Amino acid sequence: MSRYIGPVCRLCRREGIKLMLKGPRCDSAKCPMEKQWRSNPPGMHAWRRGKGSGYSLRLREKQKVKRYYGLFETQFIRYFRLAERSKENTGTALLQILERRLDNVVCKSGLAPSRKSGRVMIKDGHVYVNGRCVDRPGHLLRQGDVVGVKPSDRSKKLAKTNLELTEGRSPQPWLQVDAEKMQVTVIAMPARDDVQIPVEEQLIVEMCSR
Description:
CATH class of the domain at 101-189: Alpha Beta
Helix content: 25-40%
Number of strands: 5
Distance between the termini: 28 Å
C-alpha cells in the first residue's frame, strides 16, 4: 500500500492553511505556519508566483481535501462517484461521506491526536465498532454506531493518553464522547458546517466531473 512519507508541514504550506496533520502540535507555536517566512508555498521562487488559473484553483481545492482526510486519488474518486449517486448536492454529500470515515471520527473524538495516528490505531486492531474489531480506516459509520477501544490494558492506556492529549479539542455536535468508557456514539449524520477547513466544494465537483 502506498503512503506519503515526506514532510507533512510542506503540504500545509502548499495549501496555505493548517491541515492539522500533526495533531496538537499544529495548535502550538512550533507549527511552521505560525512563522511568516515558512507560511509561503514551498519552492525557491514562491514569492514570484502569480495568480493561478481556473484549473489550478479547482485542483488546489481537491488536493486540500485529499490531504486533510489523508486520501489518495483512487480513494477520492471512489467517494466522489458515491456522492454523485446521492440525492443531495454532490459537493455536500462528498464532504459528509468523508466526515463519516472511521479514522476521521477517531480523530475528532479525541481517541487519536491526528488522522494518521488514528489510522495506525485502527490497523493495529485497537478500535472496535459496535463491539467488533474493524481494521479499515475508510469504514463509513452510520447513525447509531458506537466506536470504542479494544478491551485490553494496552488499548485502554493508549486511548486514555490520547484523550488527555486532546482534552481541549472542541466537541463535534454529531458525536457523543464518553471519556470514562472511551466510547464515541454517532448520534446524527455530519452536516456541511461540521467540516473544519474552508472548502469550496463546487470547485471540486467541477474538477472531478470533467
